Amino acid sequence: MSEFTAFSLLESIIDRVSLKGYKQPTPIQKACIPVLINGSDLLGIAQTGTGKTAAFSLPIINKFGRNKIEIKAKSTRALILTPTRELASQIMQNVDDYAHGLGLNTKVVYGGVGRQAQVDAIAQGLDILVATPGRLLDLIETGDINVKALEVFVLDEADTMLDMGFFNDVQNIIAKLPKSRQTLLFSATMPAEIEVLAEAILTDPKKVQITAETVTIDLVNQSVYQLEKSNKVAVLFNILQKTEHEKVLIFCKTKYGADIIVKALEQASITTASLHSGKTQAVREQALQNFKEGNLRVLVATDVAARGIDVDNISLVINYNLPEDPRNYIHRIGRTARAGKSGMAISFAVENDIRQLTNIENSIGQVIPVVTEQPFHKEFAKTSKEVTKKKQIKKPNRKTNGSRRKRK
């Protein structure tokens, strides 16, 4: 019997959860679902991959499934605001799966596609709307949606909203919402701006903090390949030829770089596609769907486009370029080792990457092993700081004054 029955959810929801293979709630689901069913506001500190979509959507679906009302035209009972189109689509897909058979009206809206179909859907009145900030603000300003009857507001990936420059849009949207509502705010980190926002929009919230970083790090076999920049493609081929990984996710720095990698892999008859903001929404969705279904072996993505990617059985993540922000390293390698499974993450590092690599290691509290048994290994003259052991570190410590050690 599913442990989700302990939450007193509708039987149809429990059936749908079981069909998706969920045998027991994740830590964030255990902590959030009872709080949200009771109607409290919530501040959740958790990353993508911890199960938070179900944590916030199951109580909403349960509430609306038990209490159906006549919805006014152009209104929605719940609004889930999220930063990227891919994440919005993914959340909508999960919501529709969980709500199957309950007769709830749902819709996802985002930019980059025609707006008329979105306007027509909203005009009928919605139970749940999933949206990105830009398109939602546009629909509000043109009078195509009225948010005054909103009952539940979910702000997902708040720190990513900040990083992507959506913060002003988010604040403008919040200013238009009714004061009386249940509000949920989720963020992977808590910079000062998010703390201020949380204080402003949450009323006597319950706080749930899930440290997914430790779980992710423990389940992922991490390694670094030191090499010259000119040898990256050759090393990539070497890795793909020698491994049996069926789904490989490669992260790179730029859209241009992603397309170059795709071209090189296609010439080697490796099925691949790129995912970045230079592609149309239709092309991005098709690439992601093909990757999910196993029609592509490799997906090459930039950080922004890949936020929220939730694809089962990615066994290998390759950091073709190291991220500048250590937090993105955790987001990246968290695409593998999902649902308690193990995974592998390989990072390419050139000599100029030592500072970034040191920051990443200090952030996760451990040294990432260097693979010397690869054909293009290069010893670096520079050294990186000794990294504080993970058990001794509670947050990124970039002021560590430990001894220097040679990176081999």
Automatic annotation (TrEMBL):
Short motif Q motif, span: 2-30
Pfam families linked to this entry: DEAD, Helicase_C
InterPro entries, per database record: DEAD/DEAH_box_helicase_dom, DEAD/DEAH_RhlB, DEAD_box_RNA_helicase, Helicase_ATP-bd, Helicase_C-like, P-loop_NTPase, RNA_helicase_DEAD_Q_motif
Biased composition regions of type Basic residues, renumbered to the chain: 390-408
Domain Helicase ATP-binding: 33-208
Domain of life: Bacteria
Keywords for the protein's UniProt record, in alphabetical order: ATP-binding, Helicase, Hydrolase, Nucleotide-binding
Gene3D superfamilies: P-loop containing nucleotide triphosphate hydrolases
Residue intervals of the Helicase C-terminal domain: 219-388
Region feature (Disordered): 381-408
DEAD-box RNA helicase Q domain residues: 2-30
One function term, GO molecular function aspect: hydrolase activity
Annotated GO CC locations: cytosol
PROSITE patterns registered for this protein in UniProt: HELICASE_ATP_BIND_1, HELICASE_CTER, Q_MOTIF
Database matches in PANTHER family: ATP-DEPENDENT RNA HELICASE RHLE, ATP-DEPENDENT RNA HELICASE RHLE-RELATED
Family note: Belongs to the DEAD box helicase family.
Protein name, UniProt field: DEAD/DEAH box helicase
UniProt organism field: Colwellia ponticola
